[in-house]
Write a structure and sequence with these properties.
The structure is a single chain. By secondary structure, the protein is α/β, with parallel strands linked by helices. The chain has three domains: 236 residues, 3-Layer(aba) Sandwich (Rossmann fold), CATH 3.40.50.300; 168 residues, P-loop containing nucleotide triphosphate hydrolases (Rossmann fold); 73 residues, no CATH class. Helix content is 34%, strand content 26%. The protein has 18 helices and 22 strands. The strands form five sheets. It has a six-stranded mixed sheet, sandwiched between helices. The protein has a six-stranded mixed sheet with strand order 16-19-20-13-21-22, sandwiched between helices. The two termini are 44 Å apart.
Amino acid sequence: MEAVGLSGITKRFGTFCANRDVSLSIRAGSIHAIVGENGAGKSTLTKIIYGMHAPSSGSMTIKGQPAAFSSPRDAIEAGIGMVHQHFMLIGGLTVTENIMLGQERQRAFGLLDTRTSTERIAAIARNHGMEISPDTPVRELSVGEEQRVEIIKLLFRNADILILDEPTAVLTPEETGQLFRTLRSLQEEGKTIILITHKLDEVLRIADTVSVMRKGEIVDTLPVPGLDKQSLARMMVGRQVLLRVNNPPAQPQKVVLDISALSLRDHRGRLKLDNLSLQVREGEIYGIAGVEGNGQSELLELLWGMRSRHRKPEGRITVDGRDVSGMTARDIAGLGVSHIPEDRLRHAVIADYPVPENLIFGRHREQRFRRGAGFNRAELDAYTREMTEKFDIRYDPDPALPISRLSGGNQQKIVLARELNRPGLRLLVLAQPTRGVDIGAIELIHNTIIAARQEGIAVLLISAELDEIMTLSTRIGCLYGGRIRHEFSDDDVIRGRRNQREFEQEIGMHIT
C-alpha cells in the first residue's frame, strides 16, 4: 500500500525552482530516506507533504486518496506529523503542556485535563522506549529528550506518517541509537517514516528505501540493501566525493590561545567549567571531543565575549598574550579572532537580511564596503559573487532574498566564508562547523579548515562528531564535566587514524 504519492510536483519561489517535476511513491510501513545536497529541494518537498507549502503544479495522494492541503492543520488531520530540524517547543511549559498545545482536553469549568493527557503521554513513551518525565519543564531537557517530546507530540495526535528533518543533527551517538530503536518500534506498529538526512551511514543503517535529490529533481529511488556510502555520495553530488580529506602533518608554532585554570559557575552557582586548561598554537587544529552539555557552550561564550548568564570566571584566557577577560565581542574580534557559533540562526546570521549583508557582518565598517552613509553596492555585490563561487553557495541571486530562505547548509557556508575571510585572522573558533551540512559541503568545509591551518592560523574545533574530530585535529582534548579529562598528542592522533574504530572507542571512554 502507498502512504504518500507525488506526481509531477513543481514548486517555484519567484524565479527560483525548488522542486521540478518530482514524482515519488512512499510505501506504507517503510522507513524512506530522502538525501541530497543542501538546496537540493528535500525540505521543500516534505513541507509540501506537510501542508506548509502548496505546490505550483502537480498532485499528491495520501493513503490512496487525493490530497491538497492548505495548512499543516489539514495534514495533521490526515495523519501526517513533522519534526523540524529546529524544535518548536516552549521552554517554560512542561512536556505535557507542550504536547497538549492545540489538542487541549478540558474538564468542568474550563480547566485543562492534564491528568488524562499525562497518562497517555507516559503510555506512548513507555511503548516506544522513549523515557521522559511529563511534568518536567522543557527548558530542563537535553536535546535528545526534546526530540522525544516532538515525536510523542505526533503520536499524541495520532500521526501514522512521520516526517523527520535531520533528526540526528544535534544528537550524541547514544541518543542516535535510542532514536533508531524508537523508529524501528514505530515501524513495527505500522507507521511510515520519511527521513531527511545528510548522514549517509545512518541511511544505510536504518532506511529501507532511499530517494536521491539533486537540483530539485529526483535522481533515483533505490532499495537500501546493496548500496554503499560512496555510490550514494556520487549520486547526491554528481561527482566522486572524497570521504576523508587529505590532512598533511601540522607544523605548530607559537601559542595563540592560552586557557589557564579556567573555572566558571552559572547564576545558580553550578560549576560549568572546572579548572580547564589548554593551549592552541599557530598552524594546528586543537579538537575538543565531548558529549554536549559538558562546558562547550560556556567556553564558547567566554571566547566570544558573552557572559551575561554567568558569574565572573576564575583563571585566564589570553590571545597572543593579551588577556581577553572583560573584553567585548568586538574587541576580541579585533585581535584576529573569528567564530563559527554552534547555533547559526541565533548567533551568526540575521534571518530577515539578504546574503550580501550577512556576508559582511562585523566587517561592515570597513572602508571598502562603505559609500557615504550606506554601502558601496558595487563592491558588496562583487564580494558576494566572489564568496558565492569560492564556497559554492547556492541560492536565487535575488538581492532582496532573506537568508532564511536558504538551506541550512548554504547558511553555514555563508558564515564560514565571512569568518575565514576576516583580515588579520589569528584564531578560528569552530563549533559544530558541519552540523546539518551535506557530504559535498563537508568536504569543502574540511578542506577550507585545513587550508587555514596550513596558513598558520590557530584553530579550536568543538564538535560532537568524533569522525570530524579525528579527521581534522592535530591534538584532541576530551572534555567531561567542564575539564579536559585526557589529551591525545599529535603522535597519538596520527597512530589513532590508522585504527579509527579502536581510537574512537578510546576517545569515548574519556568523554562519557
